[in-house]
Design a protein that fits this description.
By secondary structure, the protein is mainly beta. The protein has one domain (about 1-115). It contains two helices and 13 strands. The N and C termini lie far apart (about 40 Å).
């Protein structure tokens, strides 16, 4: 299956090793929120080999599909450049497709090496102090 659009085409391989978890395993959840909350329950599928989530589907209170999230993971080495995590290439999520089935809109997220003024850090123990204390958030306009 491929998903294209402006920019590079993303290829997704369907994996034969996938578990559908059931309510007793705590992965299908019934949401008890205020009456205006849009989500009634969620189903999450995991890769049996890694334990990582592959797909999450949420349902509205009528039981119709509301949103679908699909993620992909990879080593950050494209043959021309690589991001290192110590002695090995960095391995992490690389993209997420967030599909609002009811509106027909899709949001695609990707992890970038950086944006102006900021570079991606891997296993950096100073990240918390730099970005998450209240003073750091306030200095960035939060």
């Amino acid at each position: 299956m491929s998903r294209g659009g402006p920019g590079p085409t993303v290829l997704c391989q369907l994996l034969p090793v996938c578990l559908v978890q059931v309510k007793d395993a705590g992965v299908v959840t019934e949401v008890e929120l205020h009456p205006g909350a849009p989500i009634g329950k969620k189903h999450v599928w995991f890769d049996a080999r890694t334990g990582l989530p592959l797909v999450m589907v949420s349902y509205d209170r009528r039981g119709d599909i509301f949103r679908s999230f699909e993620g992909a993971y990879s080593v950050y080495d494209d043959g021309k450049g690589r991001v290192m995590d110590g002695a090995r290439p960095y391995w992490s999520w690389c993209l997420i497709h967030a599909d609002n089935v009811q509106t027909g809109r899709m949001t695609r997220l990707e992890q970038l090496a950086g944006v102006p003024g900021h570079r991606m850090h891997v296993n950096d123990h100073n990240i918390y102090e730099k970005y998450l204390p209240v003073s750091a958030l306030q200095s960035r306009g939060a």
